[in-house]
Amino acid sequence: MTRAQLDKKPVDVASMFDDVAEKYDVTNDVLSLGQDRLWRRAVVRTVAAVAGERVLDIAAGTGTSSEPFADAGVDVVPADFSLGMLKVGRRRRPDLAFTAADAMALPFADDSFDAVTMSFGLRNVADPSVALREFLRVTRPGGRLVVCEFSQPVNRVLRTVYTNYLMRALPKVARRTSSNPESYVYLAESIRAWPPQGELARTIEGAGWTRVGWTNLTGGIVALHTATKRR
Q1: How far is CA 212 from CA 49, 62, 108, 161, 230, in A?
Q2: Phi and psi of 227, rounded to 5°?
């Protein structure tokens, strides 16, 4: 089984997600105590896509994050660079246009989408700034960005409890539910090493986005980052 390291070599990250694809959604539900469902609903509300709009859901995995858009009549493109994830997704939802894509070199034309969204994937990209500039390139003028990512709890006590859970309990739980429990050691390490909300907001702004902001979910365990492309 493959476990990526914090240098996040694309081939290692993709292979790791290939290994966990079959049980990925179930494992995430267990490890987050069901909170992932609430976070994903918040993403859908924040993107606020309507029928007729085109949305790129990058790092879509098996497509669970894309389904609500498709079910609402939105033209959504679930994209991921893990072929294992795409295979599971196509089996689950053959009606969705699953596409193999590297976040740092998207196979889409300029100004192709009304919105780009990424949930729990930016942290796994080797160079987030490059990915954010790619997201900007494929977004239409006036279009929007919504990034949902693990962050740093704003309460010191919660932050301490959460860090202990990440580094101690999470890998143990993963051994019972995941086909590649070592990958969740990487997950814990990558979350702990990820920058706080304000720093990520500055990175998004530095990539060329405007009206950058964020909303904390579950006390800051997760943050929803939003931005807009200049008209």
Answers
A1: 18, 28, 24, 29, 12
A2: -160, 170
Residue of 67, 74, 65 whose CA lies nearest to 42: 65
Beta strands in the chain (DSSP E): 54-58, 75-80, 99-100, 113-119, 139-150, 210-217, 222-228
Residue 206, classed as helix, strand or coil, is helix
Contact in structure between 28 and 37 (CB atoms under 8 Å): no
What whole-number distance in Å separates Cα of residue 184 and Cα of residue 172? 9
Q: What is the DSSP string of 167-193?
A: IIIHHHHHHHH-S-TTHHHHHHHHHHH
Query: 35-49, 107-121, 151-165, 193-207 — which is least confidently predicted?
Result: 151-165
Q: pLDDT digits over 166-194, tens only?
A: 666 666 666 665 556 666 777 778 888 88
Residue with tokens 């493959």: 2
